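S1.2 Input.
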Amino acid sequence: MSSSSPLPVPTFLNDHEARTVDALAGRIVPGDERDPGAREAGAVVYIDRALAGAYDHLQPLYQSGVRELDQLSRELHGASFKDLSGDLQDAVLTEIDVVVEALPTEHGAESDGDGAVRDARRERLSYFFAVVREHVLQGMFCDPVYGGNRDTAGWRLVGFPGAHWGYAEHQGELSFDAAQLPIKTLEDLRAERASVDSNQWEAQR
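S1.3 Output.
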């Protein structure tokens, strides 16, 4: 990974946490400069800003999740998660990718011995991974105003035209290729509105 931080202006995640979440994003939606994925789309920026705002209740989950993910990665492969190769990162995620419907408690089964401790940690990590995966997808496909979907990479991937004031009747037909429309963000709409307001004001002078 590049020596520069994945966060242009950090708001909650520290550098190590940001690099770890960014590495997770790269395994969830892989990509490169020619075919952008979640890292290239800046999903970690969206997550960082969300954790400082609407998702602030999930801050402890991210902090403990990164710590336990690193602990497991070192036990299995001798390095923190962000420092593993892509193949080894996938191997770690395969270990924890199970269905968990709710965040496991801190105790409970852990009193039964080392095996139970490992199982409880695996469940916590599974829950953490599920939450991160959801947030990575949000960061991949949100409007860029929220920090992710850099250069509308996510929208380009699925052929979504973004934010438009409205659509012509033929554009709503199943046979219409939405990729023909120019991609517009909320910022584009604000600029259009400001231009219209300015023109109207000039016309009234």
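S1.4 Remarks. The radius of gyration is 21 Å.
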